[in-house]
Specification:
Oligomer: single chain
Structural class: mainly alpha
Shape: globular
Strand order of the largest sheet: 1-3-2
CATH superfamily: Winged helix-like DNA-binding domain superfamily/Winged helix DNA-binding domain
Largest sheet: 3 strands, antiparallel
Distance between the termini: 10 Å
Number of domains: 1
CATH topology: Arc Repressor Mutant, subunit A
Number of strands: 3
CATH architecture: Orthogonal Bundle
Strand content: 5-15%
Amino acid sequence: MDPHTLDELDEPSASLRIIVEISNNPQGVIVTNLYKIMKDSYDVGRTAVDTSRRALIKAEIITEYRNEFDRYNIKILALTPLGYAILPKITEMAELIEKSR
């Protein structure tokens, strides 16, 4: 298999990685921090992160909220109960994708 074939999976694999990264931070992940994590760790761009984030929110796998006590109104992402329910399979899929690279 051509090793670049998996590059076409940036957005789907971004979704998997977003779920895993959020699960590593039970208090939630600030959206701007997620952009940096995804770029630095996986070389996934902001567009792929935004597309994946919106799809995950629509599927009710993650939720986005704002801290009411934060004057900067920063967006925070967290897993929903559904997100936690599918987390073991998502983690397994993300590991398989990484092994195939």
